[in-house]
Amino acid sequence: RRRRRCTRDASRFSRGRSGFGLVRRGKKHRRLNSVEESLVEMASEMVKAATSEKLKEMDWAKNIEICELVAQDPGKAKDVIKSIKKCIGSRSKNAQLYAVMLLEMLMNNCGEPIHKQVIDNGLLPILVKIVKKKTELPVREKIFLLLDATQTSLGGAKGKFPQYYEAYYELVSAGVKFMNRPNVVITQVHNPVPEAIIEPNKDNLSSRSNGVQQEANVQPVSDTSIIRKASSVMEVLRDVLNSMDPRHPEGATDEFVLDLVEQCTFQKQRIMHLVMTSRG
């Protein structure tokens, strides 16, 4: 009887691919077939390439490629987030920062599948822990602003994913804040700037920007218009910054300047979306 019982228990397990690991049979513990394994490996390699510590700056092409992968097959979000989680836990400051930047791009362009996997894979507590530590400032600030923007865009505590609000609120309750920086990064702004390039006069810019708010989102805009508007707001911000006195950098935190920064963030996302859709 004892031998039969051992045999029966052993039949519930099978050897893994290497011959040494045991893989539990059943719905939740089935073995991956060769195709699934290759797809998981592909996603992992793409994330590794996009977050390599050898990069001198973020690789936009690789990041967009990963966004396209998830957009075409939301099921890939799980593998991508798992790989990002490993990179965020890296000791390399560059790899960690690039991983957070990739995560931001995925959140902004792929939405719900990414948000769900971030929660399911326990990534939020890790992000909170990094911000609470006295780590490199760019990484901490990037994560803090990302959590703030995400929880705001998702509806806060009453939204579909309140976990983001809880993570952000935990940081705020702990006294985390970054001075001389905008506290909120708007990922979806509904007030595009006018198409024409405007002289860097603050009063003119403010009145013109307010006037455009009434015309926003009335009709779908063409690709050319999107590019023109992005170019316009970038030139306006550049002119405003160039007109400031370097001896008084506090002027860069002016509400009007921060509004232009938010506009640039929005236009950047529109351009990225345009690139992704045009490549398809």
TrEMBL record:
It is found in: Membrane. Pfam families: VHS. Residues 50-179 form the VHS domain. One of its GO terms (cellular component) is cytoplasm. Keywords: Membrane, Protein transport, Transport. One of its GO terms (molecular function) is ubiquitin binding. It comes from the Eukaryota. The keyword Lyase does not apply. Residues 218-280 form the GAT domain. CDD domains: VHS. One of its GO terms (biological process) is protein transport to vacuole involved in ubiquitin-dependent protein catabolic process via the multivesicular body sorting pathway. It is a peripheral membrane protein. Belongs to the TOM1 family. PANTHER family: TOM1-LIKE PROTEIN, TOM1-LIKE PROTEIN 5. This is VHS domain-containing protein. It comes from Aegilops tauschii subsp. strangulata (Goatgrass).
